[in-house]
Design goal:
Blueprint: H1 14-24, H2 29-33, H3 40-58, H4 63-79, H5 84-104, H6 107-128
Helix pairs in contact: 1-6, 3-4, 3-5
Length: 129
């Protein structure tokens, strides 16, 4: 289920969005470090999957933007020695797990969490100016 960018959503440069999403994902790093496949590259692929699920839930990105970000992440991970199948497995595993967590939240909790994330992204974008 894809949500479209609303007119009130700020158009933030891709680099700032990536940084902000990474900053938002910091609390999720513990998940990536627990029991995941060895190696930093696999853990980073998992973080990418978590951010992807979060972006799908909170909206503001088209399916094409999400696909492009995933392919960019995959290219970086391939350069760092992670094979494509391992990237896809780690990414999908984390995306599924976080999507399930989002699904357990009430609509009000999801709305609040997404609002908090948007606020952090806006603050990061403002600080980058």
């Amino acid at each position: 289920m894809s949500k479209t960018r609303t007119p009130t959503s700020p158009r933030v440069p891709a680099a700032v969005r990536a940084f902000a999403l990474a900053a938002v994902a910091v609390p999720l790093i513990a998940f990536a470090q627990q029991g995941g496949p060895g190696g930093m590259a696999a853990q980073m692929a998992e973080i990418g999957g978590m951010m992807h699920a979060t972006a799908k839930t909170c909206g503001g990105y088209s399916e094409q933007e999400l696909a492009t970000m995933k392919q960019q992440q995959k290219a970086v991970h391939l350069q760092r020695g992670l094979d494509a199948a391992s990237f896809e497995q780690a990414f999908a595993r984390a995306e599924t797990k976080i999507a399930q967590r989002w699904a357990t939240m009430s609509a009000a909790q999801r709305d609040q969490a997404c609002a908090d994330i948007r606020e952090q992204i806006a603050a990061t974008a403002a600080a980058a100016r």
